[in-house]
Design brief:
Chain lengths: 100, 604, 186
């Protein structure tokens, strides 16, 4: 398989995730889409690593996974806080204190 | 400083100081008669200085002094000077101006007696200011200072014509005078610009070449046509009679309207290089002379007769200058100043007596007002050019010069105008002083000594001024040898005939309808056709042009500014929307920015 | 030949499930579809000769993350119907952006010369361990600190705030006498 195929696949995954981030209204929906994007990046790491022939890609991926997990934890904590304050996380748009 | 300069400065600045004093100290001005007497005092001092100056100049007839200070220094040299030119011409005119102004101010002491105090003070302040302005013009060493004086006398004329500013007709007349003369003054301004651009100065002694000289003099003549009420810009002068009669005597007979003629006399070196302009002057001047004389024959208001008469006589002066006779123009200027001022003051005396300007309210006044009648007669015959009067010498000179220059048609016009001059003056005299007294005339009587003194004072030069013409000619660097031969007396047949005709029609002092051949002209004169024409031109050109310019200014110039403001505001509004406070929008923007930067980096 | 078919299947699974994640109207369904995506990714890792990472993926992601997500969904939807709404808005500009990004990346990939075949490799997990604890040890340690911070942070953010009880340390309170209450040393 040419490396390009894996990369394009990952690019597609990333784009789908980007679409989700830009279009979802609920906080959890956005978090899910971010997950997709992170996943795509991990895939790219692994793919490049494979075609380099060493383990560097996997090392990066490992760290990326750990970081992503941490980020999800914080994100969910924020969602819970948001829910407690506003009774719903559905309309992220309503958090608009910075409105110009 | 030499004596002549000192005297000139006194004559100039004493009235100016008085004017400033009255202007800036309202309590003083509002005292009325005391303020008036102060102004008369200033005028007397000015007159004294002028007389002394004249005598001094007589002792040195060919002296020509020029003292000036640099006013606008530029690149080492001076762009414009301010100063005094003391020579025969300016000294003579100074005397005329101050003498007539003095007489008029004294006359006003009685004539304007019934005015409220504050108004009286204002009136005399204007008079003092006028003396200053006119002398600035007369004593100017260059065209720029002359222009300064020119504009100031125009302003003074506006202020004095519109003295009774609460009267709508007076206010309109003042504006009309200012308007028409201002329009003509653009010619003067353009002339200054052209002269400066070609010669780097405002001297009339320069020789810029025939073409430039012609252009400059033509532009100057445009201004003269306005200021000296020549056809077709004469329309303001009859209306200017709305001002008090002494004002008409001073400004609109003797001095201000003569400023145009004085200008040409002064700048003669330039005009000598412009044959075309002189040609134009001959025709316009002679046409105005006869045109205005005709209209004067059918007027019923005594001041209007004199106003048109002034127009006509100014036409004589202009025509004379056009024919190359500087002496003719200048001499007639001085004699006219005296007898026309005299006639106006005499008319003022009559008007004061019967409280009306219309000749139908007068009549048979000879019995009651002998002094006025006498001086009026003196003035009339001098104006008509009867033999041995001052007017005779000056008018004859003009007719001769015209004939000598070979221009037959203008000469005939001038001759015809002379006939009519005698005719209409005779008509006025007979209607006013002979015949039956009207109701209003029953209570007529002479004015006080303040009115009588100036009348006598002016009658002297009006009658005898001619004799001194030859004597002073040397002072004016001019050749003038009056010839005492038949040819000199022949033209005086004409005014005699004129008086005879007047006697035959109006000898019994009864008003009669105008002679048949003059009737259509009378109708035309009364119709104000020229005024309507000007108004129409203004409406079409002036208002439309103003509308177009206004449109341009409002929508394009202002529009651009408003557009800038509008763009800023709406742009701001649009940009403001970026700050939606919405997290998702911000995320989108960041994602988009990353995309854009990556794309930019990638595609380079 | 086989690898191409495998790639094709994995790719299809990945893309389809990812699409369902972002388009599903039901939040719980979205989470579950994400699980499918993460599992497919693990298979992809296997195809790319990274078995250790594949197993980490299964454990942490499909196991941990999905569970977390479900927890999150359930905690914030107490008493509601499980057909949880999951709206999208502004899909237009999102679509444009994602397509543009995809185009950009694909363009970059296509324009770059990339190897066609993978070099032969021996799968050596031990070597991976040596790499982590060797040259990349610093990153490893920092990561552990980070995880600690995240843990503390998540607790601080999400804890319940009881207004009546002041949890501030006695020595740091402003309005009470430090010598009162418990006489703990500051």
């Amino acid at each position: 398989m040419p490396l390009a195929a894996w990369l394009i696949l990952a690019a597609g995954l990333f784009s789908i995730g980007l679409y989700g981030v830009a279009s979802r209204r609920g906080a959890i929906g956005i978090l899910l889409s971010v997950e997709l994007m992170a996943n795509a990046v991990n895939l790219i790491f692994i793919a490049f690593g494979r075609y380099r022939g060493d383990h560097l890609g996997q090392v990066f991926t490992l760290f990326a996974v750990a970081l992503t997990v941490a980020e999800v934890a914080i994100g969910l904590a924020l969602v819970i806080l948001l829910h407690r304050v506003r009774r719903s996380d559905e309309r992220v748009d309503e958090v608009r204190e910075l409105h110009g | 400083m030499s004596l002549p300069i000192e005297l000139a400065l006194v004559a100039l600045f004493v009235p100016a100081a008085m004017a400033v004093l009255l202007a800036l100290v309202p309590p003083l001005r509002r005292t009325g008669r005391p303020a008036a007497w102060l102004s008369v005092l200033a005028a007397t001092v000015s007159l004294g200085a002028a007389v002394w100056l004249f005598a001094d100049q007589l002792a040195h007839p060919t002296r020509d002094l020029l003292e000036s200070v640099a006013w606008l220094p530029h690149a080492g040299a001076s762009m414009a000077d301010v100063g005094l030119r003391i020579d025969g011409i300016s000294v003579g005119m100074t005397l005329v101006v101050t003498l007539v102004a003095f007489c008029v101010q004294v006359f006003s002491l009685d004539y304007m007696r019934s005015e409220p105090d504050a108004d009286l003070g204002r009136y005399f302040a204007y008079h003092s200011f006028f003396i200053f302005s006119m002398l600035m013009l007369v004593l100017a060493p260059n065209l720029l200072q002359l222009f300064f004086g020119w504009e100031l006398v125009g302003l003074t004329s506006y202020l004095l014509i519109g003295f009774y500013f609460k009267k709508p007709s007076a206010a309109k007349a003042a504006v009309k005078a200012f308007w028409v003369t201002k329009l003509a003054d653009t010619g003067l301004l353009l002339a200054l610009l052209v002269l400066y651009s070609h010669t780097g100065g405002f001297e009339w002694t320069s020789h810029p070449g025939a073409d430039v000289a012609t252009l400059v003099t033509l532009l100057l003549f445009v201004a003269v046509v306005g200021k000296s009420a020549q056809f077709p810009l004469h329309v303001w002068l009859p209306d200017a009679m709305e001002g008090p009669t002494p004002v008409s005597a001073l400004l609109h007979a003797a001095t201000m309207v003569a400023a145009g003629v004085y200008l040409i006399v002064r700048t003669d070196p330039l005009f000598a290089q412009a044959a075309l302009t002189r040609e134009v002057m001959v025709y316009i001047g002679s046409f105005t002379a006869i045109f205005a004389a005709v209209i004067a024959c059918v007027q019923t208001d005594i001041k209007k007769v004199l106003a048109y008469s002034t127009c006509s006589q100014l036409g004589y002066m202009v025509a004379a200058l056009g024919a190359g006779s500087v002496m003719g123009g200048y001499f007639h200027l001085t004699t006219h100043a005296f007898f026309k001022a005299l006639l106006f003051l005499g008319a003022g005396s009559v008007i004061h007596a019967v409280h009306s300007n219309e000749m139908s309210d007068m009549g048979g006044l000879w019995g009651r007002m002998k002094l006025t009648g006498t001086v009026f007669l003196v003035g009339s015959i001098s104006l008509a050019g009867m033999p041995f009067t001052a007017g005779f010498f000056s008018k004859d000179l003009i007719l001769e010069s015209m004939l000598e220059s070979g221009r037959l048609l203008p000469w005939l016009a001038l001759l015809g105008a002379a006939f009519l001059t005698a005719f209409y003056m005779g008509r006025v005299f007979f209607l006013v002083f002979l015949g039956k007294r009207s109701e209003k005339a029953e209570h007529a009587h002479e004015g006080g000594w303040e009115m009588r003194l100036p009348l006598v004072l002016l009658a002297i030069p009006a009658l005898l001024g001619g004799y001194f013409g030859a004597h002073f000619a040397g002072m004016w660097h001019l050749d003038y040898e009056p010839e005492w031969n038949l040819q000199a007396f022949a033209p005086s047949l004409v005014p005699i005939l004129g008086f005879v005709a007047a006697w035959s029609m109006y000898g019994r002092g009864e008003a009669r309808p105008a002679p048949a051949m003059l009737a259509p002209i009378a109708r035309l004169a009364r119709s104000g056709a020229l005024d309507h024409f000007y108004e129409g031109v203004y409406r079409v050109l002036g208002l439309k042009l103003a509308a177009a310019v206004g449109f341009f200014d409002r929508y394009i110039v202002d529009g651009l500014i408003n557009l800038a403001g509008y763009l800023t505001l709406t742009g701001g509004q649009r940009v403001r929307r970026l700050q939606s406070g919405n997290v998702r929008d911000y995320v989108f923007v960041v994602a988009f920015a990353i995309f854009a930067l990556s794309a930019f980096g990638m595609l380079r | 030949m086989i690898d191409r078919i495998a790639f094709g299947i994995v790719a299809a699974a990945l893309l389809l499930s990812a699409l369902r994640v972002v388009t599903s109207k039901n939040l719980v369904h979205s989470v579950l579809w994400l699980g499918v995506t993460l599992a497919s990714t693990a298979v992809a890792y296997l195809l790319l000769s990274a078995p250790f990472i594949a197993s980490i993926q299964i454990m942490l992601y499909t196991g941990g993350i999905i569970t977390l997500m479900l927890f999150g969904v359930m905690l914030t939807r107490r008493g509601e119907d499980l057909a949880i709404p999951n709206d999208t808005s502004e899909g237009g500009r999102a679509l444009v952006l994602s397509l543009a990004t995809f185009g950009l990346f694909t363009g970059a990939v296509v324009m770059t010369p990339l190897p066609l075949d993978a070099p032969s490799i021996t799968v050596d997990t031990a070597e991976l361990g040596r790499q982590i604890l060797g040259p990349n040890l610093m990153a490893f340690e920092v990561l552990s600190v980070l995880l600690l911070a995240v843990m503390v942070g998540a607790i601080v953010i999400a804890r319940r705030r009881d207004a009546s009880v002041d949890h501030t340390a006695p020595g740091l309170r402003l309005d009470t006498d430090p010598s009162s209450e418990d006489g703990s040393a500051s």
